[in-house]
Amino acid sequence: MRIESAGRGRPRLAMAGIFAGAATLGVASGIVAHGADGPRWVFALLILSAGIVGIAQQTLPEAPTRSTGSRVPP
Amino acid sequence: MTRNGARSGGHRSWIGTALAFSLSTALAGAVTGALLGAAGGLLPPAVRLAAASLLAVPALALGGLTLAGRGVPPPQCDRETPQRWVQAGATAWAVSNGAALGCGATNRLGFWLWYAIPAGALLAGRPALGVLLYGTYGAVRGTMVWVLLLGLTRWVGDDYAAWLFRRRAAAQALAAGQLVLLGAAVAVALGL
Question: What are phi and psi of B71, to 5 degrees?
Fold first, then answer.
């Protein structure tokens, strides 16, 4: 398995960093978003959700971000 | 965007293609969010508040079911971008594919949590908040191409697609947990 030999720590660390970055972005954006009708921290959670979905969708079968347009998953 | 396809035209070519893709994705998300926020502004605040409160219930239920291993797939256009877009050229494909993915609704969604984005942008009722929310989604999704091309291909090799696919269960759990958290937050903050 190439993944095992490539070192398992770094990809996990990178993914954790991405999630932490998305969380930070979400909270910061929520704080900046003055004037929201609802409480700001709910909007911050929404922003965090947007970041999580954007990342999580990369795990879909043949995610379109890296596809060439095929309609059929591998 | 395949690594080989993106890099086939040389270093400068794939960077330009990836940049066009990222910008298009972020812009499409921002425009979609602005339109939804503007449309939501036409609704009375009481209606938006009530709708958000009601949506907390399915959010809690669907997130909980997914965490319990009994999740149901979300309604979605389970397809990828049309093949003919690829034949239009790398930059045209990057722009059109980015626009489709920045909006997201016409492609495979995979996660119930995605629906929180258009719903949140609409119920926020302000174009600026819609841009912030939906634009974040588009920007993150568009930025991931750099993580794939510059990071994962280096760390896990050309098999990065399979590496990502094997983490789908973890991604589902994370998204479902966030959906439960969001539903609970809305229920607490806005009331049921």
Answer: -65, 150
Closest C-alpha among B21, B56, B72 to residue B183: B56
Cβ(B133)–Cβ(B62) under 8 Å? no
Longest dimension (CA), chain A: 51
C-alpha–C-alpha distance, residues B146 and B134, integer Å: 20
Q: What span, in angstroms and rounded, lies between the C-alpha atoms of B106 and B167? A: 24
Query: CB distance B48–A53 less than 8 Å?
Result: no
* Predicted local distance difference test score (pLDDT) of residue B15: 84
Query: Could you tell me the pTM of the whole model?
Result: 0.79
**A4-31 mean pLDDT:** 57
What is d(CA B99, CA A43) in angstroms, rounded to the nearest whole number? 24
Question: A2-16, A57-71, B115-129, B141-155 — which one is most confidently predicted on average?
Answer: B115-129
Q: Min CA distance, B66 vs chain A (Å)? A: 15
Q: Is the model's pLDDT at A54 over the cut of 90?
A: yes
Among B67, B74, B138, residue whose Cα is nearest residue B112: B74
